[in-house]
Design a protein that fits this description.
With 323 residues, the chain is α/β, with parallel strands linked by helices. The chain has 2 domains: 160 residues, serine acetyltransferase, domain 1 (Orthogonal Bundle); 96 residues, Hexapeptide repeat proteins (UDP N-Acetylglucosamine Acyltransferase, domain 1, 3 Solenoid). The longest helix has 29 residues. It is globular and about 70 Å long.
Amino acid sequence: MAPEIPHDQPSIESPLSGERLDVLASQVADSIKEDQRTRHLTTSYLPSRREVIGVLERLSWLLFPGFNGPRVIDSEQLEAHTRQLLAGVAGPLFHQIAGALRYAEAVEPITFGEHCPDCDERAREIVDAFLASIPQIRDALSLDVQAAYDGDPAAHHTDETIFCYPGIRALWMHRVAHELYQQNVPLIPRIIAEQAHELTGIDIHPGATIGESFFIDHGTGVVIGETTVIGNHCKVYQGVTLGARSFERDERGELKRNTKRHPTLGDHVTVYAGTTILGGDTHIGDYCVIAGGVFLTRSIKPGHTVRGPKAAVRLNENRSDFS
């Protein structure tokens, strides 16, 4: 049976003849059947990006109440309000995680069906542990908000950093994604990370470990890789890359995974705009400052400033006549 056209869309007559449509439909269907990498036809349990984003929206009401969600919350009814939000998050999150666990089992080279009692039990445990971590996530975000205010003289209030700063938006999504990543949830942490990337231009892999009071100033073009470790009270500017120096391959020529590929920053490290720091064995010591535009693939001892060569400045006289 052909799918119905949604009611909110006008019915538009196809410019193609029925015979031509039959030919094209057959070609596209054959293409779908032949390429297993780009299709799933029978996995109804696959996670839904739309549902995951809906869960994120509800979580933002818990992480930043009053900023997101209802503007007025009766303090005497706060516990009941929180209970309702937790219940509203728990159900959809459970279904998405259970689906992701089924997906992870299905892609293994074993026979597998949609019935997976272990997946449901594991999903319940993950949801319970994740919801229990919300107070700790809120504590971490509070420090991030303060770091953004303290680190930017253009900020007039901590409220402004919550409402307006892409670094705060990327960080709260990252801290949610990282918590799920640590519990080995497939797919969903990456969906969350890519939602943050799409909204802010900041690309943080959910596996990255980020300490307290982290500030991303401006943020556009920041890339933080999976095995990056960032200490406490660090600050990075736009265009910073904390990436992998190269991709090692095993004896079969395949990429080595689950290795430390990205750098480590100590505490109180500042990395200015346009800097690239690469390599899993690259350690930037405490209280270091990395100037803008530096390309760095070696470790730096604590308490140093790293600068690149100064660019030559050439002045040409403007010969235009001014009258």
